[in-house]
Amino acid sequence: MSDPLVLFRDVDDLISALAPGRVLTDPDVTASYARDRTFLQAGAVRAVVLAESRDDVVATMKWATANGVPVVPRGAGTGLAGGAVAGDGSIVLSLARMTRIVELSPADEIAVVQPGVITADLDRAARAHGLMYAPDPSSYEISTIGGNLATNAGGLRCVKYGVTRDSALGLEVVLADGQVINTGRRTMKGVTGYDLTGLFVGSEGTLGIITEATVRLRRAPATPPVTMAAEFTSLRDAAAAVAAIIAAGCRPSMLELIDRNTLVAIDDWRHIGLEPSTQGMLLAQSDATDGEESADRMTAICEEHGATFAARSTTPEEADELIAVRRMAYQAKERLGECLTEDVCVPRSKLPDMIAEIEAVARRHDVRICTVAHAGDGNLHPVFIFERGLPEPPPHVWAAADEIFRAALRLGGTLTGEHGVGLLKKRWLELESGPVVASLQTGIKQVFDPHNILNPGKAI
């Protein structure tokens, strides 16, 4: 561990370049900004910059480039892959105070926002105009737009509306040397030049710091969405029902799968009345104009595929209660111990096979795995529970994770659907990308960040 006194000697120029109170150097305070929601341990950072404007970010990056100091960007710290975990001697650049909705245009169905805007706050602002912001990560009440952009977050509504990249039209980005560029557009279409907006979205802060984003808004549903819930005695039956719902053209706006281990954790916490025979729950929602009919069709399909119970909501309050079960899943699992949270994605047709692989791995390695899935797009979140207080998962947990990653790739899937690579998945990255793609990605990084000061060691 580096000597904290040495780390704090060389930040005087940075403190002088910013307004009073923007730079924190007290180690007891800075430590709280140096990690995310993973178990990963952070290093001793030089300082934390509490940016309130683009100019603060520019000044920080100019200072960092001049001094060769790594910079770790940070939003709300809700990441699950270690992307915002800071190393020794780095600067943490917090964008959480940049919370302005700069513009909201109902006529153009766009919003221009700073990176610290909370996802749910943007959605609420849009709904005042009959619009909505479609990306809907489970952490939407605490996660920020900047963090969502950095990881290309997905969420509960992505089965119909896509992930964050599908709503990102343009960005203002501060590069490693402090230069400011604008990418993309305000229009719904545009193919001028390379798609730099798409490149920055999901780059985990390794290519530049997003200081403003132009995002697409959509018409909010005319009527409240209708939700259905179904319980199954077999998780594979639930997965088969997912495939049947998609094949029937039901077009759900949400299609979520929760396994028994997760349901038990929720029931122990919130007493939801879990039946002893229930091995999995399917939650589906329709926000279409024929939402009630669509929910009825999905209910019938679940019954045809072995559901022991299936019913749809009859009021918006009932719908909210059902979706709340899904949103509390991660907090319930955190109560069980430390969590290694993973994020594999497979073709939808392979969802039953991937679920079978997870169940087999859990038995083989005697690991408690709690799985939820954005089932409509094949994105599974197996969470490996291990003893609280350990610095990292024990070897048998890593071995189980390794098998699940390899199974996802074997089934034509990917290592991460929405959480990002961060630090946690670095060791498996080349299994998916291969050496040529890995070399190309390293080359892209060098173009934007030749001195490797932007979130080094993450993503690629």
UniProtKB/TrEMBL annotation:
<keyword id="KW-0274">FAD</keyword>
<dbReference type="InterPro" id="IPR016164">
    <property type="entry name" value="FAD-linked_Oxase-like_C"/>
</dbReference>
<feature type="domain" description="FAD-binding PCMH-type">
    <location>
        <begin position="40"/>
        <end position="220"/>
    </location>
</feature>
<dbReference type="Pfam" id="PF02913">
    <property type="entry name" value="FAD-oxidase_C"/>
</dbReference>
<dbReference type="Pfam" id="PF01565">
    <property type="entry name" value="FAD_binding_4"/>
</dbReference>
<comment type="similarity">
    <text>Belongs to the FAD-binding oxidoreductase/transferase type 4 family.</text>
</comment>
<dbReference type="GO" id="GO:0071949">
    <property type="term" value="F:FAD binding"/>
</dbReference>
<dbReference type="InterPro" id="IPR036318">
    <property type="entry name" value="FAD-bd_PCMH-like_sf"/>
</dbReference>
<dbReference type="InterPro" id="IPR016166">
    <property type="entry name" value="FAD-bd_PCMH"/>
</dbReference>
<dbReference type="InterPro" id="IPR016171">
    <property type="entry name" value="Vanillyl_alc_oxidase_C-sub2"/>
</dbReference>
<dbReference type="GO" id="GO:0016491">
    <property type="term" value="F:oxidoreductase activity"/>
</dbReference>
<keyword id="KW-0560">Oxidoreductase</keyword>
<dbReference type="InterPro" id="IPR004113">
    <property type="entry name" value="FAD-bd_oxidored_4_C"/>
</dbReference>
<dbReference type="InterPro" id="IPR016169">
    <property type="entry name" value="FAD-bd_PCMH_sub2"/>
</dbReference>
<dbReference type="InterPro" id="IPR006094">
    <property type="entry name" value="Oxid_FAD_bind_N"/>
</dbReference>
<dbReference type="InterPro" id="IPR051914">
    <property type="entry name" value="FAD-linked_OxidoTrans_Type4"/>
</dbReference>
<keyword id="KW-0285">Flavoprotein</keyword>
<protein>
    <submittedName>
        <fullName>FAD-binding protein</fullName>
    </submittedName>
</protein>
